[in-house]
Amino acid sequence: MKKRFFSSLLAIGLTVGAAHAQQAQMTSVFQDNKYQITGVAVSKTGRMFVNYPYWTDIYQYALVEIDKDGSKKPYPDANWNSWRPGQDPSNKWVCVQSPYVDDKDRLWVIDPASPKQSGVYKNGHKLVCINLKTNKVEKVYPIAGVVGSVSYLNDVRVDTKREVAYITESQNGGIVVLDIKSGKARLVLQNHPSVKADPAFRFIIDGRELKDDKGPVRFNSDGLALTPDGDWLYYKPLSDNKLYRIKTEFLRDESVSDKGLGGKVEDLGKWTTTDALIMDPAGNLYLGDILNYTIYRIKNTSGTKAELKRENIITDKERLQWPDSYAIQDGFLYITTSQIDHMAKNNKNRSTRTRPYEVFKIKVD
Fold first, then answer.
1. Nearest CA to 36 among 63, 58, 66?
2. E strand or H helix at 5, and its extent?
3. Which helix or strand (DSSP H or E) is residue 16 part of?
4. What is the pLDDT at residue 249?
């Protein structure tokens, strides 16, 4: 009996040890002790870009490039980062939410133009394309008239084969489909449950429900990701654990009504409470678990719902404090931590942040 007991303990110990050994190694590649970051983008040559949303008075730049020594410089230049209330928002950053580098090595930047999340400033919400070879703005795509003044553009993914951009709107819910060549854009699925956070879901971190002065915080459609062939778009609201996907052929077809589009959405069930999503070249989907300080990977993303399998990449309660945005480059997954749950507005006007805002990277292939 005693021998079997110790053998069982040994087996348990080996199992736990093996699970621990399988945890990915996560390295900090950038820290900011003062200014809050949300997004990260990495070019094919390894250039890294980080953005700072204009959410509070603790603010300096909107978008920066991180040099190899860890220093930062406003990008694409100081003028684009010089906006102040009262100025023209059309050719400056107002409140950048996220950057993204596409397969053609172009940098795309989402500016919801909602300083302090108070509403769009003078129709300044836009998607901006920057040529990384010249470091010049190539084109500005205004989103005025597509989403309203009470909106918040959140994330973008680009199908470089078809030259179509997909953008989430997280204030009211919806997906913007933008033709890159013509600049024509339209908002779809805005009335569909897949872009709305489930009001019955309680967003609880460490026993505390996330609330602001209006009550429980709700974030609608936020993260999105394209399969490598551009045929499927995965997306979800932030403040619940549901995941959805739709074939992009339906999103691109203007003859399909919004009600018809809703019938094409595939409900994948309950998975996790991630902020962003990112797909690697092999078709693996990476997503976080804000409530449990974890990063997951889902394989077989072009397969059936039953074929989707989730695996744990890393759990780190100390460092993964609100994993926010992701980038994939050269076999590494880059992760930002924005610590939104520690913001004063979500903590009875008292900030509880104890760590720097960071960018981490994990080798994933």
1. 58
2. helix 2-21
3. helix 2-21
4. 98
What are the distances in angstroms from CA 234 to CA 147, 161, 162, 225?
A: 21, 18, 17, 5
How many whole angstroms separate alpha carbon 99 and alpha carbon 157? 10
Residues in the chain: 365
Mean pLDDT calculated for residue range 278-297: 97
| pLDDT one-digit tens code per residue, 172-181 | 999 999 999 9
Residue 70 token pair = 């860890």
Q: Strand, coil or helix: what is 29?
A: strand
Residue 340, φ and ψ in degrees, nearest 5: -60, -35
Q: Which amino acid, one-letter code, is at 49? A: F
Distance, in Å, from the CA atom of 82 to the CA atom of 60, rounded to the nearest integer, reads 9
Q: What contacts 207, CB < 8 A, 6 or more positions away?
A: none
Token pair for 365:
């292939």
- Here the tokens at position 3 are 């021998």
Count the alpha carbons within 13 Å of 110 in the hemisphere toward its beta carbon: 30
pLDDT one-digit tens code per residue, 9-37 = 334 333 333 334 468 899 999 999 999 99
Residue 323: asked if its preceding bond is cis (omega within 30°), the reply is no
**Does pTM top 0.90 for this prediction?**
yes
DSSP 244-285: EEEEHHHHH-TTS-HHHHHTT-EEEEE----S-EEE-TTS-E
